[in-house]
Amino acid sequence: MTLMLVMGAALLFIAILMVSTALGDAESRGLNRSIAVLEAMASGPKELSNDLDKPFAERVLAPTRATALRIGRRFTGADTGERIRKKLDFAGNPPGWTVDRVVAGKVMGLVAGLVGGFLFAMLIGPAPTIRILIIAGGAIAGFFAPNMYIYQKAHDRSQQMGRDLPDAIDLLTISVESGLGFDAAIQQVAKNTDGPLADEFSRMLREMQIGQGRSAALRAMSERTDVAEIRSFVSAMVQADAFGIPIAQVLRVQSSEIRVKRRQNAERKAQQVPVKITIPLIFCILPALFVAVMGPAALSIMENM
Predict the structure, then answer these.
(1) Is the per-residue pLDDT at 1 higher than 80?
(2) What angle do CA 260, 222, 102 make, to 5 degrees?
(3) What band does 3 get if pLDDT is binned at 50, 70 and 90?
(4) DSSP letter string, 25-90
(5) Residue-wise pLDDT tens digits, 60-117
(6) In angstroms, rounded to a whole number, what is the distance separating the alpha carbons of residues 80 and 99?
(7) CB under 8 Å to 216, separation ≥6 — which residues?
(8) Collapsing DSSP states into helix, strand and coil, what is residue 211?
(9) DSSP 8-state code for residue 304
(10) Eight-state DSSP code of residue 126
């Protein structure tokens, strides 16, 4: 019996020793393999290491955007690029935003909105019809998200240009009446003011410097905006240049007309306030007022009854 116990212990010791040796060999082989892979990567072709060293945006996002651009071009019309380019001009051509990026962004937004709507519908767990509506709404919102961003940028830019135009025309009038030419006056406005209107004047001057005529540069500036006052100003300047009318007189008249339109626009918005405030007054203010005024009386009546 004692001999059998000794033999069993010896066999167990031998088994443990063999297992530990095997594990040590496997670990050393795995370590050697990892070191070999690292050495191969370090000594491999430079193109492979450059591909691995690229940032995540270039390795993943750029191919995804290219695929989305190919899909978007298949499903958009032939005149979509021109319409998007015109909207980007209205928005002031935000940095990094091109026609290709907008088309790719619409496709990627569609996929993101579809996935987000599906996850949200699964999370709240409504009826199947409501789920379909949520998923469809998310897809539509994602598809039109770039358009809404460009529209908002164009709207803000148009509002800013409309506010800056009267002061810019006043500065133009003072500069021209002091003896400067129209081009030099435009340069003074572009240099001494900030905002989208100053950027448009600077672009107009650059176009004139590369050989474009003054009338053509003015018309191009009016086509890059949807502000009615700027288009009226450009039309008056083009006609004055064509018929030889003194620029200072035209600028003085334009300044007076724009300020009258600005005052009329302010009066029109002021007259719209009572109509616009009716809905929040009925649904937000009056219920709270009724609760505050009639609440104590209602509680007293309930106690007496």
Answers:
(1) no
(2) 120
(3) very low
(4) HHHHHHHHHHHHHHHHHHHS-HHHHHHHHS-HIIIIIHHHHHHHHHHHHHHS-TTHHHHHHHHHHH
(5) 566 766 776 677 777 776 667 788 888 888 888 888 888 888 888 888 888 888 888 8
(6) 9
(7) 207
(8) coil
(9) H
(10) -
DSSP 287-302: HHHHHHHHHHHHHHHH
Token couple for 81? 């690029």
State how far the Cα of 234 lies from the Cα of 228, in Å rounded to an integer.
10
Alpha helices in the chain (DSSP H): 2-43, 46-53, 56, 62-75, 80-90, 99-124, 128-177, 182-192, 196-209, 214-223, 228-243, 247-276, 278-280, 286-304
Count CB neighbours of 101 within 10 A. Answer: 17
Q: Collapsing DSSP states into helix, strand and coil, what is residue 210?
A: coil
Residue type, 128: P
Tell me the residue length of the chain. 305
- The residue behind tokens 């961003």 is 149
Taking CA atoms, 70 is separated from 44, 63, 76, in Å, by 34, 11, 10
Residues 6+ positions from 188 with CB-CB distance below 8 Å: 171, 175, 180
Owner of token pair 């899909």: 71
**Distance from C-alpha of 73 to C-alpha of 248, rounded to nearest angstrom:** 49
* d(C-alpha 220, C-alpha 79), whole Å: 20
The answer to whether the predicted template modeling score (pTM) of the entire model surpasses 0.85 is no
